[in-house]
């Protein structure tokens, strides 16, 4: 058996799957390409050198080794940074090594720093290479290094090593697989999923609410005869058009059914007058065949009465009210004089909303059908979960399995009922089924374990 999911789950799942696939492609792009080399402030490098917590807060990688990296400074700024960091951590310059991870060949002119020595403020030196530092006086070099530290401007990614008691501490940008940069990207994607999931659910719900309303209206169509509610015309264009088309179909079917019922009622009504006159004339004739002819006329009048009752049930609409089912069944048995073969079994009181007149007529039709084929009927009333039920089990011959659903159709007569003694015109159970549907319930027929027919009326509580 194929498992079917609600349309809300399908639309929401499709939207979420599309979003996750897009996010997965974006995430894979970020993880395949190398992370960008970040710029580092001198203060962040100093904090990372002094403590692991500083490295963690700044997102830098910190490790201890027996020897420093074997790289040598490639830019003049490496030496200036080393001088600045050595001054900040109060270490000799020999204990500090700095080298840029992504050096460029363009010379850098240090001209934006405010030097602390007033008598050297007019000096200007082009320092782009390490060799250019030999031209700078030591006092100016110290001022430039102090300016580096005071400015604390982001520098191209560099690595700095400091001698420690156990070797060298080296800090630099985190280039691991799950770096701080990638972690922030993952966090951004996670937050976007959390924020977009409710929006996706809301959009899917807006799309599917009209579909569910349409499905609910379709499932309830026919339970109330010609008084079925209209299909909702709302939601997206296609769903609204479907609702409008179903309303047109509903109107056409209702008109057709009403016209057919009206025609049957008119024919049945017009036949009563000549039949009554024919019966009166029969009584004036002295002939042995007259009693049989009168019996045939009575049978035709009974058939006409059934057609009139069926037509009345299709056209009448009675408001529902709270009904105590055991009392209703007891009244039906007493009113129809079925107490000679129908017995109401003991049980608890069960109440539900239903049309008492139509439901009582349905119970009476089922009892009348049982009287034609069985000698005894046991009636039970109960409830389970959200369903109230009435079960009428007789000891008759039952109905062949292939006819159990068809006997509820109007004018259908089973093979075993096509005789003058028991056979009607096929409206008894059909009328009962229509009346029960008018109360929002259903009539289910089944054969007993040994013999007999079980008619189960189920009503919502």
Q: How would you describe this structure to a colleague?
A:
- The protein folds into four domains: 7-34 and 182-216, no CATH class; 42-174, no CATH class; 221-317, Signal transduction histidine kinase, dimerisation/phosphotransfer (DHp) domain (Helix Hairpins), CATH 1.10.287.130; 319-460, 2-Layer Sandwich (Heat Shock Protein 90), CATH 3.30.565.10.
- With 461 residues, it is of the alpha+beta class.
- The longest helix is centred in the middle third of the chain and has 47 residues, at 237-283.
- It has a five-stranded mixed β-sheet with strand order 6-8-9-11-10. Strands 1-4-3-2 form a four-stranded antiparallel β-sheet.
- Helix content is 49%, strand content 14%.
- Residues 205-258 form the HAMP domain.
- It is a multi-pass membrane protein.
- GO terms for molecular function: ATP binding.
- Residues 266-461 form the Histidine kinase domain.
Topology:
Layout: H1 7-32, H2 42-50, H3 52-58, E1 60-65, H4 76-89, E2 96-100, H5 138-151, E3 158-164, E4 167-173, H6 180-220, H7 237-283, H8 290-315, E5 321-324, H9 325-335, E6 342-344, E7 351-354, H10 356-373, E8 377-384, E9 387-394, H11 428-438, E10 442-447, E11 453-460
Helix pairs in contact: 1-6, 2-3, 2-4, 4-5, 7-8, 8-11, 9-10, 10-11
Transmembrane segments: 12-32, 185-204
GO molecular function, one term: ATP binding
Membrane topology: Multi-pass membrane protein
Please summarize what this structure is.
One of its GO terms (molecular function) is ATP binding. This protein is of the alpha+beta class.
The count of helical stretches stands at: 11
Instruction: Please name the fourth-level CATH homologous superfamily of the largest domain.
Output: Histidine kinase-like ATPase, C-terminal domain
Largest sheet: 5 strands, mixed
Quaternary organization: single chain
Could you please say which CATH topology of the largest domain applies here?
Heat Shock Protein 90
CATH architecture of the largest domain: 2-Layer Sandwich
Measured between the Cα atoms of the first and last residue, the distance is: 30 Å
The number of domains is 4
**What is the strand content?**
5-15%
Which descriptor suits the 3D outline? rod-shaped
- Main CATH class of the largest domain: Alpha Beta
